[in-house]
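Why should sequence recovery work at all? Because a backbone constrains its sequence more than one might expect. Tight turns favour small or flexible residues, buried strands favour hydrophobic ones, and helices have their own preferences. The token representation captures these environments compactly. In the example below, the structure is given first.
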């Protein structure tokens, strides 16, 4: 397919690499053009602007950091909506709030375009290995058209209905559960450390028996080793997602008390200079609160 790709951070770079390797014709755009250099060497073509990345494309994928960036690249005067052809698709594949996703869906419909929300599930290394999941929602025909892209990008697609906001709600709920797991592990590791037990002992129990999922193994290992420089998803971005979860919960009148705990832990980590560390650094903030650092 003829694809435009906008946003080449850790996740976006891994995704664009897989699309190029799968033989898709990819135009890439990023505000920092240097991030596209190796993708161009791999076979992508550089686009000078968002509008240029939409020219002649069947679909445009965005993987940008936050709602403000998504609104700008989509709804701005030189954005996707004014530039994309009628009938073409916009796949928003980052983690965003329900409000902006609804706004994009309406704007694309008015312009005769199709919006599909398809946030990725997994860290950049999982995406690079083709092992990430994808939560996809949008018109059934559009999801069928996206199948070759999804096949290149991940191991499995979880369909969430014909309204893009459905995929958004699932991704936010998924991140909420994961953040609570990291917070709970941070508390547990701090407890055993206070009793002089090596963190590796608890990690072996977590990874071998009680919680054998990749998330517990990956983040448990980071916490046990205190390897917070092993960044897959930053604390600053995690705070953004935490705020999105709380906003979605407030809009739907759903109490999420644990989300408030996670948000405060993330704020503490950022206040101590860990904004650009992996979001597992909320466990470091727990350790500080326990007198361990």
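From this structural description, the recovered sequence reads:
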């Amino acid at each position: 397919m003829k694809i435009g790709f906008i946003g080449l951070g850790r996740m976006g770079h891994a995704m664009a690499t897989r699309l190029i390797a799968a033989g898709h014709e990819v135009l890439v755009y990023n505000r920092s053009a240097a991030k596209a250099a190796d993708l161009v060497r791999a076979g992508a073509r550089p686009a000078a602007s968002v509008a240029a990345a939409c020219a002649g494309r069947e679909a445009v994928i965005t993987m940008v950091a936050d709602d403000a960036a998504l609104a700008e690249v989509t709804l701005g005067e030189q954005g996707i909506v004014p530039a994309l052809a009628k009938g073409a698709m916009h796949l928003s594949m980052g983690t965003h709030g329900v409000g902006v996703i609804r706004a994009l869906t309406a704007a694309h419909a008015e312009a005769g375009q199709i919006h599909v929300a398809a946030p990725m599930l997994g860290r950049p290394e999982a995406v690079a290995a083709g092992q990430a999941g994808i939560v996809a929602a949008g018109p059934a025909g559009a999801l069928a058209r996206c199948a070759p892209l999804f096949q290149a990008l991940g191991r499995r697609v979880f369909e969430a209905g014909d309204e893009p906001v459905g995929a958004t709600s699932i991704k936010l709920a998924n991140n909420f559960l994961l953040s609570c797991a990291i917070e709970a592990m941070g508390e547990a590791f701090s407890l055993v450390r206070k009793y002089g037990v090596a963190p590796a002992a608890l990690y072996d129990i977590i990874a071998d028996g009680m919680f054998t999922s990749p998330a517990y193994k990956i983040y448990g290992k980071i916490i046990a080793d205190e390897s917070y420089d092993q960044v897959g998803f930053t604390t600053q971005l995690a705070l953004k997602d935490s705020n999105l979860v709380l906003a979605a919960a407030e809009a739907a009148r759903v109490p999420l008390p644990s989300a408030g705990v996670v948000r405060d832990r993330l704020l503490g980590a950022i206040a101590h200079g860990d904004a650009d560390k992996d979001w597992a650094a909320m466990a470091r903030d727990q350790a500080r609160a326990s007198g361990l650092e």
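A few observations help interpret the result. The mean pLDDT is 94.
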